[in-house]
Every structure is written in structure tokens, then in C-alpha cells.
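Q: My labmate handed me this sequence with no annotations at all. I'd like to see what the chain might look like in three dimensions before we decide whether it's worth expressing. Could you predict it?
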Amino acid sequence: MVTGGRVYCDALGAPVHVPDRPARVVSLVSGVTEAICAMGCGHRIAGVSAYCHRYVPDLQAPVVGDYLTVDHERLADLKPDLMLLTTGVQRALARKLSGAGYPVYVVPLPSSIHGVLENVMLVGGLLGEVEAARRLADAWTESLRAIRSSAGDRRVRVFAELWFGKHVRVPGGLTFINDMIGFAGGINVFGEAAQAYMTLDPVDAAARSPDVWLLFSEPEYPVDGRALMRERGWDRAMPGLRLVEAGVEPHRNMIHDGPSMVSAVQWLSERIAECG
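A: Here is what I predict for the chain of 276 residues:
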């Protein structure tokens, strides 16, 4: 990664002009925002998404948009020298902002913990903070390894069900969530699937004999796990199934790829340990 000039962005198929040390960074990716702050560069963030303050509550940067939209007037006032978005559903917004002349760089959606740490290094390179990024990535890795080591030989079968608003998905083997479950001492029952986020098949999920049902939902669209268990008949078919409910709070958020992921893995490890 060479800064202070033209940096090629694969996701956009175009070069981006990035200064040596960007000082007015707008990040619309909460995991990236948290990582930048963990590198000691929070003062260089000029704007964030509506979700970033969940993970960096003391950050003073104003909200300039959410995951899919931006306040164009506020964004223009900030005059960002680097904007960070991600692939997936943000790609269309990234293209629009790039077309409007903003210096947009799109980081790839990670398909494993390795991808998460690679993005940390990528962002560190863009900021001219490679050493800080490597320290963060190394500490992150060591923390996850320590949690895995503390789990010993425990390997509990985990079925993860993620509700993104009203839409439900099941993480396969090509997700960092699969790795989070593994570091916590679990086995993702769909971990052999060479897919990222799959549609839900409750019959297939039950047939895989999970010990733990890891259920994530957002406060705007809460899911009642106990009621859902009765509706599916899992309370009778799998009386020993343990329900573990995750949420958007950093310490139990299983869909967030920022540094607080470590606390979420620790939380899940403790819940899995309670299974005996």
C-alpha cells in the first residue's frame, strides 16, 4: 500500500487519490470506525454512520448517513479526504459517491477472521499507520487465541440464526461469524457450507442436532426466541437446546467485525461453557 497518490480500489475498478495521512476521514463502516479509533486515530475521523457510536460512544464526529444513504449537504461541508465503505449493499452508494468526486475506498466484506484482520491492515495502510494497524491485528489475534485455548477440548454444536431487520440469514463457512463461533469453543453446524449467508431452513437446522441456538436480532425488529422455539416445535423436538440471544450491544454482537468482536467471542464462550 502506497499512500500520497493514486491508490487502486479493486471494488470500484478505479484509482483513488489519497493523501499521505488523511485527516478528514468519513467512515460508514462501524467495524472500520472502531478499528481506526483502536489504532489511536480517532481524531482523524470527520464523519461516521448512524451505527458507529454504538462501538465508539465517545467519538465526537457527526453522523453523515447510515448504511445506505448520506446527508449530501453535511458531507460536502466536511470535505473528506478519504471515505471508507464496504462491498455488498454499500457498493452502489460507494459508486455514487465516487462518481460525485469523493475519494472513496471500498474495503471487501470479510469471509473469515483473516479477512477482518486483512482489512485492518488495509485501512492502516490508507491512513499511513501500518505499524499501529499491525499492533492492533496482532493483539486481536492473541486475544482470540487465548479465548480458544481457555475453552479446552470443548466443541459444542452451534446453530446461528441472524435477523437483519425483518430478513433472516444463516452464516455458513465463508463468514467471520463461523470463526467467532470456533474461537468461542463451538462448531457452526453449517460451517461446512461453502457459502456466506444462507436462507433459513428450520427443518435442516434441527436435523443437524445443535446444542446451542445462537439467535441475533436488532432492537428495531426484536425476535422472541422462546416464542419462535415453540412455534417451530423445537421445545418438544430438542428439549435440551439452549437458546443464547445476541444483540447489537458490543459485548454480545455476533455480526460486528470491529475490535469489540473479542468481547463478543468471550461472551459466547462463557454462554457455551454453561452448557456443561
